[in-house]
Amino acid sequence: MKKVFFLLTLVGFLATQAYASPTGPRKTKAPKVTLEKQLASYISFPEALAPIQRAGVVVIQFRVNADSELCQLTVFSQNEQINTSLTKQLTGKKLAGYSSDAAELHTVRLRFQPE
User: Fold this and answer.
1) Any signal peptide, and if so, which residues (predicted)?
2) I want to staple 77 with a disulfide (CB 3.0 to 4.6 A). Which of 45, 82, 88, 101 is the partner?
């Protein structure tokens, strides 16, 4: 009798779990590849790298405000010309598909190739 009760309980538990759905909606984030592609569409090759025709990597950090615009942008480069150029090009640009969670800090690595 105990075995039958246990098996019925087990089957009932498994049956309810098979049809269970999550209680809250899932937050889906846009992949970082999309973020990098969106940022790349807003910027051009930095003037400071043009004379030496060299590739470069620059790291930027930013937050997205309630209007889906870039804010609190920081560029991590040793070249001040690159820092100001990228800051001017990206400040206030809109990012499609990103939440306005101002607490979330995004870090992106940008790669530049000479044309």
Assistant:
1) 1-20
2) 82
